[in-house]
Structures are given as structure tokens and as C-alpha cells.
Fold this sequence. Notes:
The complex is a heterodimer of chains A (117) and B (112). By secondary structure, chain A is an all-beta fold. Chain A has no helices and 11 strands. In chain A, strands 2, 4, 5, 6, 9, 10 and 11 form a 7-stranded mixed sheet that branches. Helices cover 0% and strands 50% of the residues of chain B. Chain B is mostly beta strands.
Amino acid sequence: NAGVTQTPKFQVLKTGQSMTLQCAQDMNHNSMYWYRQDPGMGLRLIYYSASEGTTDKGEVPNGYNVSRLNKREFSLRLESAAPSQTSVYFCASSQDYRTMSGANVLTFGAGSRLTVL
Amino acid sequence: GNSVTQMEGPVTLSEEAFLTINCTYTATGYPSLFWYVQYPGEGLQLLLKATKADDKGSNKGFEATYRKETTSFHLEKGSVQVSDSAVYFCALKAGSARQLTFGSGTQLTVLP
């Protein structure tokens, strides 16, 4: 009963290094999301994928790229990490964004804590 | 645009005290409203939701009522426990929006 699985859980990078955060869900959900969580700012949407084959920018997309590899997997890439990207990153999924108000709501992973020095 | 405003924390209460965490929103149309809870070291979990005006969401002793006239969705619990210590997020989904809009979160600590 895994739900949403994120890797890695912790990562320390130097400024300018690149890395990819991996996310996979086993609930056959159509929509997937990447959020970042910063103190006092709540969760802010970076990118989302409404369905397989599509991706769209959220509130704070600069400095990030995403890939919806297949229906299960949605990765987030930092090409050249900056200290401002130090944050906790959450992947989430939902059955379908159009029905999120009903029984199908967001299911979150446990988070990935990234520190950029 | 859509936005959610939560009371600032942190909130510290003694066990069995009454809890209120205020949440107000701005949205187009009639959004669905949610409370999520984040326990230490974990991701967010849905606590309760309400999809139309005057609906009351409830779960684990927590309640929140969708008040369209005051654009509010305040979270309440009559008697908190130490295990309720967590960060609580209010969120909304407005109409055809493809994602949730979250508030900034309220840290609750319950002391024995």
C-alpha cells in the first residue's frame, strides 16, 4: 500500500550542481504535482501534470523542469541548483484534477528535503 | 486570483483545551474547501473537506463549516490531545482550477 513514493528523502547539493527528484504513484492516478514547502509560505505549486503526456507551470516554475515519464512517474529536475531552492519538496497525485472536489483529493508523498549550499 | 489566509502560529495548547484555527479565503465562484494535516516528518494528509456552502466536514473529532457569507472555513476541536500536534493547512480548489491553493499552515503544539 505504497501510495506516493519520493526519492531521495534528503539531499545536499552545492550551488550549480544538478539533480532529479523522483516520484512514483501506484494508485493509477491521472494527475501529478510537485510542490515546495517553505517556512511561513505554505505549499507552492511548481509544476503539475494533469494527465500523462502533459505538463504545465504552476506558481513558482523558474529553475525547474519536469518530466511525466509515464502514468506512474513524475520527476522534478534542478539543472543548476541555487540556495533559494533549499526547501522541502512534495510530490502529490490525484485521480483527476477535474474531480478533485469530490472523493478524489490529493495524496502526498513523505517529502524530500533539499539543501543547497 | 484565489488565496487562502490562515491564522498565524504557532499555537500552543494544553491537553483537553478547545482549538480554533481560523481560515478565510478569496476565490472565484464556489470553491471546495479542505483541511490537511502534516505530522512531523510526514507528507500532508487530508483531514476533512466540504464542497458546498453550509456543509460541515468532520474527522477525528475535528470539524469545519463552509461559511459562504463570511468566506471562512475555521477548524475546531473540542478537546485536543498531544497526538494532534502537527501543522494544519487550509486549502481550496476553485471551479475549473487544476490544482489546490494552500494557506501558509499553522503549527499546533499540544502539551500534556
